[in-house]
Amino acid sequence: MSVHVHLVHGILDPVGHAGLLKLVPYLQQAGFDVRVPDYGLITAVETRLVNPIMTRCLRPYMEPGDVYIGHSNGCAIGYDLVASGAWDLAGLVLINAALKRDIKLPGRMWADVYYNEGDDATVAAVAAAAIGLTDPVWGSMGHGGYEGSNPLITNIDCGHPAPTDLPAVSGHGDIFTDAKITAWAPFIVRRILKHLRTP
Q: What is the pLDDT of residue 96?
């Protein structure tokens, strides 16, 4: 049985336009069963209503060992899933996450956090969450990475990548540009495979 990978897009990037979809062929080539739910085009303010609905809708489809990949608000939905009891996910891939930086994950769940200092959209997310306009877990992880001591959460600074053969990324969706995703997608998939092979 293949591992399910759930790809969840950001607020202004619905399926059909989502840069996140560029990961699909790379994931399928690696043998993953890819699932792409769509909550449509919404505004930041609507995340207070839509994110809890998406969490309730997605929860029954999460199986032990699944991997969740989110971009922007998709990362907030993923974290809301974990907080609601999806503790048996293998791990999370958080790309330019509109998510607070000090997340807590249960047990052996891992996370790869892809961020860059040019991601100003997630800086604005902090202010929006602080005044109660958005999902309360919104924050600037996409700009500054994870802030904490969990060794299973790995920061990957896309603005200053190592290995250095990867192109530098600057901006909220820059990783998905055609010239950059062809280098970053195989790297992302290799890291997922490595996590899944590590006991």
A: 97
